[in-house]
């Protein structure tokens, strides 16, 4: 395999939970050399070895671990030694913590002016909420997402995935890559920050535009698109299916397949605007027709007419789908206690460059000795640091 595109870049990962590790994963899967800076296990409230946890393997793979007590001056000095040759540092402390520890951007960029220092927080580094604890669930609520998710009148509903965490990590990784590109011309690093709240607001997208431009407050639309009709989920004879046929040509083809071309001349449905205004009535009429035959029948017939549609899969059905298998998004990696485990890979493919999952998520401090040795510490010095609880080593 050819050299991975980010293999020359070194990353220090001082993040926890999900948003930060998501950003780091975007870099490590493409080859970045990541060292995870962890709280020593003998000073942490975490219970047990997380390496058997499926989600831990999912978000913490492709990195090495060193456990450093950053409340100890010698621990901070070890971090600063690592910073000297680091390209990117990512942290998710509450805004004031990095200053109290003496590892803020202003301090570390004096050591390495080319350092790209990225911060993730719940609500931002400044402002009235800056010191509040922020988690995905909380931000889905504050960011408006729960008010537009779910069936009309159902009450607030959270998304089925931690969308605020994931989008924040992906957007921060994008910002880091932009900063790396800029560094090629300026020769300088810079400070980057985002928050779960900012990312969640960004992800409102068309719903935000409806409010900001049209002065409309979006509400729950359930399993149907809030504006383009018909686009949504419909019951069939044996289950459910989803379709998208809102464009005029698509709607006409849909009605032809359904043997109800009269719908296209109905004044309530003859234009996209009218279909949106009469959405509930039209959706009910369409569902009555769809319920006469099976999901598979409709999916085959509608695809013949180039009308977007598909089944509503469970997760196991998703991974059994032939197109999903064709995309080859599953990475296989050996595990000492489970033989081989599967994890989700990257959704982007390139003609020359490849993503790769080649290292299990590490135990806390698994590579502490190895990394300190690379920094020039002798065996007796490393053992002294462990004895004084400056660092922790799992083996």
Sheet/helix structural class = alpha/beta
**End-to-end gap:** 31 Å
Tertiary shape = elongated
Q: What is the CA-based Rg, rounded?
A: 26 Å
| Biggest beta sheet summary | 7 strands, mixed
Low-pLDDT windows of residues? none
| Adjacency order of strands in the biggest sheet | 6-5-4-1-2-3-12
Question: What portion of residues belong to β-strands?
Answer: 5-15%
Percent range of helical residues: 40-55%
SS element count, helices: 19
Structure description:
This protein is an alpha/beta fold. It has 19 helices and twelve strands. It has helices spanning 19-28, 54-60, 73-83, 97-101, 105-111, 136-142, 145-148, 163-186, 196-204, 206-212, 248-257, 262-265, 272-277, 279-290, 295-304, 315-320, 322-327, 368-374, 379-387, and strands at 10-14, 33-38, 64-68, 88-91, 116-121, 191-195, 231-235, 240-244, 308-311, 330-335, 339-344, 391-392. The strands form three sheets. It has a seven-stranded mixed beta sheet with strand order 6-5-4-1-2-3-12, sandwiched between helices. A three-stranded antiparallel beta sheet has the order 7-8-9, with helices on one face. The protein has a two-stranded antiparallel sheet with strand order 10-11. α8 (163-186) crosses α9. The mean pLDDT is 95.
Write the layout of secondary structure elements.
Blueprint: E1 10-14, H1 19-28, E2 33-38, H2 54-60, E3 64-68, H3 73-83, E4 88-91, H4 97-101, H5 105-111, E5 116-121, H6 136-142, H7 145-148, H8 163-186, E6 191-195, H9 196-204, H10 206-212, E7 231-235, E8 240-244, H11 248-257, H12 262-265, H13 272-277, H14 279-290, H15 295-304, E9 308-311, H16 315-320, H17 322-327, E10 330-335, E11 339-344, H18 368-374, H19 379-387, E12 391-392
Parallel strand pairs: 1-2, 1-4, 2-3, 4-5, 5-6
Antiparallel strand pairs: 3-12, 7-8, 8-9, 10-11
């Amino acid at each position: 395999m050819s050299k991975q595109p980010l293999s020359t870049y070194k990353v220090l990962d001082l993040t926890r939970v999900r948003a930060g590790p998501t950003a780091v994963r975007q870099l490590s899967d493409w080859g970045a050399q990541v060292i995870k800076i962890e709280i020593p296990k003998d000073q942490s409230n975490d219970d047990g070895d997380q390496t058997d946890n499926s989600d831990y393997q999912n978000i913490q793979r492709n990195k090495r671990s060193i456990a450093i007590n950053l409340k100890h001056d010698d621990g901070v000095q070890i971090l600063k030694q690592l910073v000297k040759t680091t390209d990117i540092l990512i942290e998710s402390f509450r805004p004031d913590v990095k200053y109290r520890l003496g590892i803020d951007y202003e301090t570390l960029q004096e050591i390495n002016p080319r350092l790209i220092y990225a911060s993730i927080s719940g609500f931002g580094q400044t402002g009235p909420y800056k010191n509040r604890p922020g988690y995905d669930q909380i931000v889905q609520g504050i960011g408006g997402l729960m008010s537009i998710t779910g069936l009309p009148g159902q009450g607030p509903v959270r998304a089925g995935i931690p969308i605020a965490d994931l989008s924040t990590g992906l957007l921060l990784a994008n910002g880091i890559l932009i900063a790396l590109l800029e560094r090629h011309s300026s020769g300088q690093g810079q400070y980057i920050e985002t928050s779960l709240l900012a990312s969640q607001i960004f992800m409102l997208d068309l719903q935000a535009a409806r409010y900001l431009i049209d002065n409309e407050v979006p509400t729950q639309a359930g399993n149907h698109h809030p504006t383009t009709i018909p686009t949504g989920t419909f019951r069939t004879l044996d289950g459910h299916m989803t379709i998208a046929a809102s464009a005029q040509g698509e709607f006409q083809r849909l009605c032809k397949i359904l043997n109800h071309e009269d719908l296209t001349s109905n004044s309530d449905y003859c234009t996209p605007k009218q279909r949106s205004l009469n959405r509930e009535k039209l959706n009910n009429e369409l569902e009555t027709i769809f319920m006469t035959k099976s999901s598979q029948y409709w999916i085959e017939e509608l695809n013949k007419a180039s009308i977007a549609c598909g089944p509503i899969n469970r997760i196991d059905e998703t991974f059994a789908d032939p197109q999903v298998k064709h995309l080859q998004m599953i990475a296989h990696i050996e595990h000492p206690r489970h033989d081989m485990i599967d994890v989700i890979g990257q959704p982007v493919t390139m003609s020359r460059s490849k993503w790769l999952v080649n290292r299990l998520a590490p135990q806390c401090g698994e590579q502490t000795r190895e990394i300190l040795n690379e920094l020039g510490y002798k065996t007796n010095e490393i053992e002294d640091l462990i004895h004084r609880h400056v660092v922790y080593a799992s083996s």
